[in-house]
Design goal:
Blueprint (H helix, E strand, L loop, with lengths): L8 E6 L11 E7 L2 E6 L4 E7 L7 E8 H4 L12 E7 L2 E6 L4 E2 L8 H8 L2 E2 L7 E9 L2 E4 L13 E2 L7 H5 L19 E7 L8 E7 L5 E12 L2 E13 L4 E8 L2 E7 L9 E5 L10 E2 L5 E5 L8 E8 L2 E7 L6 E2 L2 E7 L6
Parallel strand pairs: 16-20
Antiparallel strand pairs: 1-25, 2-3, 3-4, 4-5, 6-7, 7-10, 8-9, 10-11, 10-12, 13-14, 14-15, 15-16, 17-18, 18-19, 19-21, 22-23, 23-25, 24-25
């Protein structure tokens, strides 16, 4: 059964010099109060916006948040993190990189006799293996991150999961379902983290990661990752798999909505659709069952997708409704230095 939703309402994000006309695609979004954090598809920085005062749905004042300044990362600030999943809970911003390998892109101007050579080049992209917890401090303009190593009272310092054997990569290296896909590029149905939702301590804690791929015979995968902070490191306590029947689609983002977990579902491969928002009842309130069948999910809304553009990538639950942002935005979403997202009012939300 589908939920009752309004027609999408436009939400304008002022991105300044980071506007999509400068090449920005967005892969993740999280909102706390009047502060919004965005995950650009490239680079190693996030963006922070604040809500336009006066009850507006629009956002302004873009500020760059370099992740290398906020938490200790491997490599250099020029290395791509490919941040995909964001969430804010218990005063901390959580960030997940895609963890995916990358195949060389074929561009329109690539000569035909060079396409095969480019497609043979795969790089492991170790800089993308990021799962980090950043404590936030309340400032005059909303929540802000603090420099790496600076302690926030009651929250500690920024911490990240190791990217090697003691992290997620090592835990899954010999997994019967996911191990064979770790070295396969994300856009080839390889291992690719694209969603993140964190339960608060009252709900048992735990980080839920949604995988764009692999999709296994139509079943997508959620990972429940148990961690605890040990100084500037997140120590891994365990990983549990949960299989969810998205009818062939993968996870493009996750969001908490009361006790429920919202899933933005879309293709794992480079395709234009379909895309939809689904509700997993109780998914944010406690441990997930081993598997969820398609009929146990509630369809919130189908999301329109463009031809070669407008691919839904970011999902956030706001008090006013559900916000969806797009990768490769269509021309009608670009207005100077503004990006236009969609907000749906959903009746009967928790």
């Amino acid at each position: 059964m589908a939920e009752t939703v309004s027609d999408p309402i436009p939400v304008r994000l002022h991105l300044g010099a980071h506007a999509p006309t400068a090449g920005l695609d967005l892969s993740g979004v999280a909102v706390v109060g009047d502060t919004m954090f965005l995950a650009p598809d490239e680079g190693s920085s996030l963006l922070r916006l604040r809500r336009v005062p006066g009850g507006s749905l629009d956002w302004e004042d873009p500020q760059e948040v370099p992740l290398h300044d906020a938490v200790g990362l491997r490599g250099t600030p020029e290395d791509e993190v490919d941040a995909e999943g964001l969430d804010v809970v218990d005063g901390c911003l959580w960030v997940a990189g895609s963890h995916s390998a990358k195949r060389r892109r074929v561009r329109p101007e690539t000569p035909l006799d060079e396409i095969g050579e480019r497609l043979a080049r795969v790089s492991p992209e170790k800089s993308r293996r990021v799962l980090a917890r950043l404590p936030l401090r309340e400032g005059p303009d909303g929540c802000v991150t603090v420099p790496a190593g600076e302690e926030v009272r009651g929250l500690g310092v920024a911490a990240r999961l190791p990217s090697g054997k003691r992290g997620l990569w090592g835990a899954l290296a010999h997994d019967e379902h996911l191990g064979p896909f770790l070295g396969i590029p994300g856009k080839d149905n390889g291992f690719d983290v694209e969603g993140l939702a964190v339960r608060d301590a009252s709900a048992g804690g735990g980080v839920v990661l949604g995988l764009r791929g692999p999709v296994l015979r139509g079943w997508a995968v959620l990972l429940e990752v148990a961690v605890h902070a040990d100084g500037a490191e997140l120590a891994l306590d365990g990983v549990t798999k949960h299989f969810v029947d998205l009818e062939g689609l993968g996870v493009r983002d996750l969001a908490r909505d009361g006790d429920d977990l919202l899933v933005l579902a879309g293709p794992t491969m480079v395709l234009d659709g379909p895309a939809r928002v689904l509700r997993l009842p109780g998914g944010a309130a406690g441990p997930l069952p081993p598997a969820t069948r398609a009929e146990e999910l509630t369809l919130v809304t189908e999301v329109a997708v463009g031809r070669g553009c407008d691919r839904p990538e970011g999902l956030a639950a706001l008090p006013e409704g559900l916000l969806v942002l797009h990768d490769t935005p269509a021309p009608h979403r670009l207005d100077g230095e503004h990006l236009v997202g969609d907000l749906w009012h959903v009746s009967g939300r928790p």
